[in-house]
Amino acid sequence: MKANNFSLRMFRALALEILACLVIAGCTVGPDFQRPTTSTPPQVFERTQSAQAPSKAVEAGFSPDWWTLFNDPTLNALEQQLADANLDVAAASARLRQSRAEQRVAGAAEYPTLDGAASYDRERGSENGILSLLGVSPTETQSQSASGGAPLGVAPLPGSKGSPAYNLYQAGFDASWELDIWGRNRRGVEAATALTEASYEDRNAVLLSARAELARDYIELRDTQSLLRIAKQNLEIARDTTKLTQVRVHEGVTTDLDVANASAQAASIESLIPTLEARCETTINAIGVLLGEEPGALQKTLGEPHDVPELPAQVPIGFPSELVQRRPDIRKAEADLHAATASIGMAKADFYPRISLNGSAGFQSLQLSSLANWASGQFVVGPSITMPIFEGGRLKGTLHLREAQQQEAAIVYQRTVLEAWREVDDALVVYDAEQQRRDRLTAVVALNQRALSVAQQRYKAGALDYLDVLNVQKQLLDGQSKLEQSKATAAANLITLCKALGGGWESTYANSSASR
């Protein structure tokens, strides 16, 4: 009866201790993360009011599918394939799944652990070891085991003779639970969750970069095809002029010098064609790599020449307050700062005692037939505590390291935001400026075309030297090439602007596939 009362008092004391630990378990050391505040430079979006180009940036709802602004069905189809096919995005998605697995591993520290085990041992005590303290003689043997049967155990009483081998069967469960009194495990889960968010934003950044690269390659392809078309058109003009000079030489109106100049001009233009054709092939291959295709797989889809897509009349760029919420690099920097802040709490929690509840229950028997009997049952239960006393400065060093890492993360966040605003401002400036340059080049090309027509007429009439015609034709070819390149540059600047605004990852696929 006394034994039962003693056991009851011990159980009550243990229960009170556990309850007290759970009451104070809500304490979490270390700083709580506060989302950083950023100011919006008003002068950046004010540039939309001073823009002079036809395609204007306006403060309106920004579309995540910004490539649809070009109204090009082929580009739209390629962008739809990209998220599923791009290998860089697939690798980033794999890294995200790794990060989420690590988050789950970190979260397991908040829960108890339970292990099952079973064992069989054939044992014999050393007669010159502990058994000698019991008076077991190393020279004589024992005829009966500790279980009363065959000689399977050590001598049951001091002074018995011998120590034969015996069997030991055990089966049971071990349990352990560290009470997260100071919030170390909770801070660990918080840090792991923040790192998972950073990995997700890193994937979004990869997807955004891949989309922008695909759009740029597509614009470059259409630009090269347009330059190739211009070169072929000018080659026809040069060949016609060469034939005209040959006729004039035959008529005695001019000399072989004009024929040589005309032929040289035609050959010079013709030399551009192989380079442009090769550039078309390599650009198609570059697009194929982005879509996970083998070389030449997109030749039928992209081989037919098309002009550079026209710019939209308006480009909705969203609102200043949305930039921080939309750019993946800013969101990643914020998540990294969050993880660094939570790591400080983990470092501080290491200064405090760690309390665990441990227990085991199971069966132990010298005979397998009696292992499952209640008489073979055993259990051990009780708390354990560990407290750092002397660590040689390791804990303080770790804390200072985590604090310095958080300071670095805060600086990186500020720099990332500042860089984002610079990119947006620069993109708005160059987008407007290139359109103005394109419009001026359009006027130049129109004048060159008129000049060439007049020069050819006067040359046919014998009122103009062929060198003048040749110079006008060179100016026209140069102007047309610059105009086409300017159109492509303006389109590329629009892509840069949309990328700087952070759009292109907020698709259904990005959210669904990243969650798998």
From TrEMBL:
This is Efflux transporter, outer membrane factor (OMF) lipoprotein, NodT family. It comes from Paraburkholderia phenazinium. InterPro entries: MdtP/NodT-like, OMP_efflux. It is a lipid-anchor. SUPFAM superfamilies: Outer membrane efflux proteins (OEP). Pfam families: OEP. Its main location: membrane. One of its GO terms (molecular function) is efflux transmembrane transporter activity. GO terms for cellular component: plasma membrane. PANTHER family: OUTER MEMBRANE CATION EFFLUX PROTEIN (PTHR30203), OUTER MEMBRANE PROTEIN-RELATED (PTHR30203:SF25). It is found in: Cell membrane. Residues 75-102 form a coiled coil. It comes from the Bacteria. Belongs to the outer membrane factor (OMF) (TC 1.B.17) family. The lineage of its organism: Bacteria, Pseudomonadati, Pseudomonadota, Betaproteobacteria, Burkholderiales. The keyword Chaperone does not apply. Keywords: Coiled coil, Lipoprotein, Membrane, Palmitate, Transmembrane, Transmembrane beta strand.
